[in-house]
C-alpha cells in the first residue's frame, strides 16, 4: 500500500503539489488524471524519487520512501518516451534491471525469455529498439519495467505517442497484464477516456490539488465540482439556484421555469447558487416530445451541430439564450442529420439526470 | 531506369572534383613516394635517375637499400614507437580533459552553449606558430612558470629543472593545440544523448558509476573515436612543436622525416620513413575501427 501524506512540492513560486493526500491499495490500477501542469507528473516523479518533496511523507507498506535513492526503490517507471537504451538489444534492455539486481546469467536469460513471451515478442530478442514499431517499443518498455517484479509500476502517459487504434488495443493489453501480474499500477494521463477505461480508481488533479478520488463511474456520474464535471467528458453546466420546497428540491434557472432536481450533496442548502451538471447523452431531443411526469421539458431552436460519425451533437438554444448540448446516436441507416440549424426542437431530461456541483 | 540514370550521373559529377583533387594531391604523390623509396638519392638532393640507356641497352637503377636501412639501427623504429607513445598519451590526456568540458557545454543552456563553443574555437583565430612561440615564452627559464616551480622545488631542497626542450613541453603543447579537436566531436556526440535514458537506468537500479559505464560511455564511444582520430593522426606526424619545444630530447618521427628531405637531402629514405608512418597510422585506425565495430555488433550476431 502506498500512502501519500500532506506532500507538497514547489518550483520557485509555482506550487506543483499542495498538501496532497492519497492512499493506493496493493494490486490497484490507479490513475492520476488532470490537465497539463496539474501536478500529476510531479507526483509520479516524487514517488519514483526523481523529485524531492518539500514536506510531507510518502510511505510504501508503512516504510518511508523519502530517504531511499531512486535506484534502491522497488518502483519502476514506464516513461512516455519509452527510454529504451538504443545501444542494447531488446533482450539486453529487459535484462538490465536483472543485471542491476545481480541475478545469475541463467536466471536472467530464463526470465527475459519468459517476459518476452508475456508481451508476445519472443522473436524480437536480438533486435535493436530502432528496428521496432511504436507499439512494440511500448511493450518492451513495460516488459523491462516489470521483469524484476517491482512493488509499484509507474506509467507516465505511456500510450500518448501511439495512434488511436493501437492505443485502444494497448489499453486492453494493459488491463489484462495488470490483472495477470497483480502489481500496483499508477498511471498518469491527461486523457479522460483512457482513465475511465483503465482504472479501478481515478484521482482527478487540478493545480496541485486532488479534486476527487473515486471509481470511474462515480467520477463520471457524480463529479464533485465544476472542474471535474467539465474535465471528464462533455458536460452541460447550467447555472442557477437551489430552492427547497415542501415537494422537494427545485432548481431555478434564470429566465426559465424552475425544475425539480435531486440533491445528493448535504452541503447544499436552499437558496444556494450552484450549477446543474448534465451529460449530453442524458438529454432527449425531438421535434415534439411527450414528457413523462418525471421529466422536465424545454423548447428551443437548433443553434449548431457537429457530426461525429457515431453521434451528432446538437447545440440547442433555449428561451433565455442558454445553450444546451444534446446527443443523438446515428443508429438508423443513413441517418446523419435529423435537424437543421434554426429548427424548432424540444429537449427533455429526467429530474434525477442532473447532478449539482458548486 | 531512364530516370535513375541522370540521378546517378549528377552524383558522379558532383563527386568528380573532390575525387580528382584527392587523386592529384594525395594518391598520386603517395604513389610517387612509394616509387621514390626504391630509388637512389640525387647528389644534390632530389632523386637519381631510375634507368640508364647505355649503348642501346636499358638498365634499371632501383634498390631495397632504403628499406633495409630502416632496420640497420634501432633509432628509427625506436623513434617511431616513441612518437606513437607520445601521440597516444596526447590523445588520452585530450580525451580526459575534453570529456568534462564537452559535457558542460552539452548540458549548458542554449544561449550559453554557443558562447562556450566560441571559446573552444577561439584559439584558432591566432596563428598556430604564434601560439607555439607563446609556449616557448611560458617554458623559458625566465618564464614565470619555471621560476615558480623551481622556487617551490627549492623549498624541498630539490635541484632546479628546465621545462624547455623536453618531452613534457612537447606533450603539453600537443595537448593544448589538439584539445579543441577532441572537444568538438565529443560535444556533438554528448549533446545528442537523451537525459531520460539516465533516469530510466537509475529507475531500474543502476548506481551513478553503472549509469556512466553502461549508458553514457558506450554511447559516447563514436564521438570519442572521432576525436581520437583527429588528435592522434596530426600528433603522430607533427614536427613544428618538437622542433621548437622538444630540443634533442623531445624529437619525434616527424622531425626525422623533415630532416631527411630538408637537411640530409635523402628523399628516398625520407619516403620510406613517411610511408612507414602512414602505414602504422592506417593500421592503428583500422584496428580501432574494427574493434569498435565488433563491440557495437556483439548483440546483433
Automatic annotation (TrEMBL), chain A:
<dbReference type="Pfam" id="PF00005">
    <property type="entry name" value="ABC_tran"/>
</dbReference>
<dbReference type="InterPro" id="IPR003593">
    <property type="entry name" value="AAA+_ATPase"/>
</dbReference>
<dbReference type="GO" id="GO:0005524">
    <property type="term" value="F:ATP binding"/>
</dbReference>
<dbReference type="InterPro" id="IPR005893">
    <property type="entry name" value="PotA-like"/>
</dbReference>
<dbReference type="GO" id="GO:0015417">
    <property type="term" value="F:ABC-type polyamine transporter activity"/>
</dbReference>
<dbReference type="InterPro" id="IPR017871">
    <property type="entry name" value="ABC_transporter-like_CS"/>
</dbReference>
<dbReference type="Pfam" id="PF08402">
    <property type="entry name" value="TOBE_2"/>
</dbReference>
<feature type="domain" description="ABC transporter">
    <location>
        <begin position="2"/>
        <end position="232"/>
    </location>
</feature>
<keyword id="KW-0547">Nucleotide-binding</keyword>
<dbReference type="InterPro" id="IPR013611">
    <property type="entry name" value="Transp-assoc_OB_typ2"/>
</dbReference>
<dbReference type="InterPro" id="IPR050093">
    <property type="entry name" value="ABC_SmlMolc_Importer"/>
</dbReference>
<dbReference type="InterPro" id="IPR008995">
    <property type="entry name" value="Mo/tungstate-bd_C_term_dom"/>
</dbReference>
<dbReference type="InterPro" id="IPR003439">
    <property type="entry name" value="ABC_transporter-like_ATP-bd"/>
</dbReference>
<dbReference type="GO" id="GO:0043190">
    <property type="term" value="C:ATP-binding cassette (ABC) transporter complex"/>
</dbReference>
<keyword id="KW-0067">ATP-binding</keyword>
<protein>
    <recommendedName>
        <fullName>Spermidine/putrescine import ATP-binding protein PotA</fullName>
        <ecNumber>7.6.2.11</ecNumber>
    </recommendedName>
</protein>
<dbReference type="InterPro" id="IPR027417">
    <property type="entry name" value="P-loop_NTPase"/>
</dbReference>
<comment type="subunit">
    <text>The complex is composed of two ATP-binding proteins (PotA), two transmembrane proteins (PotB and PotC) and a solute-binding protein (PotD).</text>
</comment>
<dbReference type="GO" id="GO:0015847">
    <property type="term" value="P:putrescine transport"/>
</dbReference>
<dbReference type="GO" id="GO:0016887">
    <property type="term" value="F:ATP hydrolysis activity"/>
</dbReference>
<keyword id="KW-1003">Cell membrane</keyword>
<keyword id="KW-0813">Transport</keyword>
<comment type="function">
    <text>Part of the ABC transporter complex PotABCD involved in spermidine/putrescine import. Responsible for energy coupling to the transport system.</text>
</comment>
<keyword id="KW-1278">Translocase</keyword>
<keyword id="KW-0472">Membrane</keyword>
<comment type="similarity">
    <text>Belongs to the ABC transporter superfamily. Spermidine/putrescine importer (TC 3.A.1.11.1) family.</text>
</comment>
Amino acid at each position: 500500500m502506498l500512502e501519500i501524506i500532506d506532500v507538497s512540492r514547489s518550483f520557485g513560486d509555482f506550487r506543483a503539489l499542495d498538501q496532497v493526500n492519497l492512499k493506493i491499495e496493493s494490486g490497484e490500477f490507479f490513475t492520476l488524471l488532470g490537465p497539463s501542469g496539474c501536478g500529476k507528473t510531479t507526483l509520479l516523479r516524487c514517488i519514483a524519487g526523481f523529485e524531492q518533496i518539500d514536506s510531507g511523507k510518502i510511505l510504501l507498506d508503512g516504510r518511508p520512501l523519502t530517504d531511499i535513492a531512486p535506484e534502491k526503490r522497488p518502483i519502476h517507471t514506464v516513461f512516455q518516451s519509452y527510454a529504451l537504451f538504443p545501444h542494447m538489444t531488446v533482450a539486453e534492455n529487459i535484462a538490465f534491471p536483472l543485471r542491476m539486481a545481480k541475478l545469475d546469467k541463467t536466471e536472467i536469460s530464463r526470465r527475459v525469455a519468459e517476459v518476452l513471451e508475456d508481451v508476445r515478442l519472443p522473436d524480437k530478442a536480438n533486435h535493436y529498439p530502432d528496428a521496432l514499431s511504436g507499439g512494440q517499443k511500448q511493450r518492451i518498455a513495460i516488459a523491462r519495467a516489470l521483469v524484476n517484479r517491482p512493488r509499484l509500476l509507474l506509467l507516465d502517459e505511456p500510450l500518448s505517442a501511439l495512434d488511436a487504434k493501437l492505443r485502444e488495443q494497448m489499453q486492453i493489453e494493459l488491463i489484462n497484464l495488470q490483472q495477470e501480474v497483480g502489481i500496483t499500477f499508477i498511471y498518469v494521463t491527461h486523457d479522460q477516456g483512457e482513465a475511465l477505461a483503465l482504472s479501478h480508481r481515478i484521482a482527478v488533479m487540478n493545480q496541485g490539488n486532488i479534486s476527487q478520488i473515486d471509481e470511474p463511474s462515480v467520477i463520471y456520474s457524480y463529479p464533485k465540482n465544476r472542474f471535474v464535471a467539465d474535465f471528464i467528458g462533455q458536460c452541460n453546466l447550467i447555472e442557477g439556484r437551489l430552492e427547497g420546497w415542501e415537494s422537494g428540491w427545485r432548481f431555478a434557472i434564470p429566465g426559465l421555469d424552475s425544475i425539480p432536481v435531486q440533491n445528493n450533496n448535504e452541503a447544499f442548502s436552499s437558496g444556494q447558487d450552484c450549477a446543474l451538471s448534465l451529460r449530453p447523452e442524458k438529454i432527449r431531443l425531438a421535434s415534439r416530445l411527450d414528457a413523462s411526469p418525471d421529466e422536465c421539458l424545454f423548447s428551443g431552436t437548433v443553434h449548431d451541430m457537429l457530426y461525429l460519425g457515431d453521434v451528432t451533437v446538437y447545440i440547442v438554444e433555449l428561451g433565455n439564450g442558454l445553450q444546451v448540448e444534446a446527443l443523438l446516436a446515428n443508429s438508423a441507416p443513413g441517418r446523419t442529420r435529423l435537424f437543421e440549424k434554426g429548427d424548432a426542437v424540444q429537449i427533455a431530461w429526467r429530474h434525477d439526470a442532473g447532478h449539482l456541483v458548486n | 531506369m531512364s530516370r535513375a540514370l541522370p540521378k546517378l550521373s549528377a552524383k558522379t559529377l558532383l563527386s568528380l572534383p573532390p575525387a580528382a583533387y584527392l587523386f592529384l594531391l594525395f594518391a598520386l604523390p603517395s604513389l610517387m613516394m612509394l616509387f621514390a623509396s626504391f630509388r637512389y638519392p640525387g647528389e644534390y638532393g632530389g632523386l637519381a635517375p631510375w634507368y640508364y640507356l647505355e649503348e642501346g641497352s636499358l638498365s634499371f637503377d632501383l634498390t631495397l637499400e632504403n628499406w633495409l636501412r630502416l632496420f640497420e639501427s634501432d633509432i628509427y623504429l625506436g623513434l617511431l614507437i616513441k612518437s606513437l607513445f607520445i601521440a597516444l598519451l596526447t590523445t588520452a590526456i585530450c580525451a580526459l580533459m575534453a570529456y568534462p568540458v564537452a559535457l558542460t557545454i552539452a548540458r549548458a543552456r542554449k544561449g550559453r552553449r554557443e558562447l562556450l563553443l566560441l571559446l573552444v574555437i577561439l584559439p584558432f583565430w591566432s596563428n598556430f606558430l604564434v601560439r607555439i612561440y607563446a609556449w616557448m615564452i611560458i617554458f623559458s627559464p625566465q618564464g614565470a612558470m619555471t621560476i615558480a616551480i623551481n622556487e617551490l622545488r627549492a623549498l624541498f631542497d630539490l635541484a632546479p629543472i628546465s621545462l624547455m626542450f623536453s618531452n613534457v613541453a612537447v606533450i603539453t603543447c600537443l595537448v593544448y593545440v589538439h584539445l579543441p579537436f577532441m572537444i568538438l566531436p565529443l560535444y556533438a556526440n554528448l549533446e545528442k544523448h537523451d537525459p531520460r535514458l539516465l533516469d530510466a537506468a537509475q529507475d531500474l537500479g543502476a548506481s551513478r558509476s553503472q549509469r556512466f559505464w553502461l549508458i553514457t560511455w558506450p554511447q559516447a564511444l563514436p564521438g570519442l573515436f572521432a576525436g581520437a582520430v583527429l588528435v592522434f593522426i596530426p600528433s603522430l606526424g607533427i614536427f613544428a612543436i618538437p622542433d621548437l619545444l622538444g630540443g634533442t630530447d623531445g624529437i619525434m618521427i616527424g622531425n626525422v622525416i623533415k630532416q631527411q628531405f630538408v637537411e640530409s637531402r635523402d628523399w628516398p629514405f625520407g619516403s620510406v620513413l613517411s610511408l612507414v608512418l602512414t602505414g602504422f597510422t592506417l593500421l592503428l585506425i583500422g584496428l580501432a575501427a574494427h574493434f569498435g565495430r565488433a563491440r557495437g555488433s556483439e548483440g546483433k550476431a
